[in-house]
Amino acid sequence: MLEIHDLRKVYESPGRRVEAIGSITLSVGAGELVCVVGPSGCGKTTLLRCVAGLLPVSGGEVRVDGRRVTGPPPSMAVVFQEYGRSLFPWMTVRQNVELPLKEKRLPADRRRDLVAGSLRAVGLSDAADAHPWQLSGGMQQRVAIARAVAYEPQVLLMDEPFAAVDAQTRADLEDLILRLWRSFEITTLFVTHDIDEAVYLGRRVVVLSSSPTTVMEDLKIDLPAERDQLTTRSLPRFGELRGHVYRQIQRARGHSEDR
Ligand SMILES: Nc1ncnc2c1ncn2[C@@H]1O[C@H](COP(=O)(O)OP(=O)(O)OP(=O)(O)O)[C@@H](O)[C@H]1O
């Protein structure tokens, strides 16, 4: 569904050249949930923005369902970390969720069904007429997730979506993502700096090196498919996988410090 082939990205401005992404090749199959982790500043956000067609690539290509990405593809939805900036404060929750569906030119009754279904799925039916600023941070991020799900994307991109919420809300949102992912079978690429979160959510975890970034490892997460915050995180295998990814990231950081 999503193919990233030899993707390269260099930021160039007068007097400054940053080779953010050396070369990344990776693919995500239909209905798969893949997490991407890497040391700070390794280019995770850059990768996601290139994949979303929000940044021009310097080389290589991204394909969604075989079609080359040259700008934001209509089949993709993105959830960013800064939910505060991604929702329109003057619109209600319902209007925020509905907006991209209007841009997709869906008929009114279909829009109504999708908005109601996605707000129900994230447990926010009662907040449909509230404005984002009347909601907690976790609820606002659920609105952003509902908006992405209502859009029925072929590919969902998430850029550290839970970095700004407290630990308990974060655990709830992680489980929400797993539930939605199971019921809607959306192909998902999830970027996080949190190793535990990556191992808990991902069916695969892709570990990136430091800039100029490449894929250090593409690790299959062989934990039971049914995941639960308490049971899964207490499995010895969870600890082994987390330790392995942690060591890989330390190794990546060590390399960059040697340079
Ligand atoms: N607009 C830009 N212009 C120039 N350089 C940039 C720009 N955006 C990012 N960079 C550089 O590209 C590299 C990768 O940045 P990016 O934000 O993608 O990393 P990240 O892995 O998402 O970081 P973090 O984990 O800290 O969120 C960094 O060296 C950064 O300074």
Automatic annotation (TrEMBL):
| InterPro entries for the chain | AAA+_ATPase (IPR003593), ABC_transporter-like_ATP-bd (IPR003439), ABC_transporter-like_CS (IPR017871), ABC_transporter_ATP-bind (IPR050166), P-loop_NTPase (IPR027417)
Indicate what this protein is called per its UniProt record. NitT/TauT family transport system ATP-binding protein
Give yes or no: UniProt keyword NADP: no
**Keywords assigned by UniProt, alphabetized:** ATP-binding, Nucleotide-binding, Transport
Which Pfam family, an example, fits this chain? ABC_tran
Family annotation (CDD domains): ABC_NrtD_SsuB_transporters (cd03293)
| Superkingdom of source | Bacteria
The protein's matches in SMART domains, at most eight in alphabetical order, are given as: AAA
State the Gene Ontology terms under molecular function. ATP binding; ATP hydrolysis activity
- Domain ABC transporter, by residue range, is 2-235
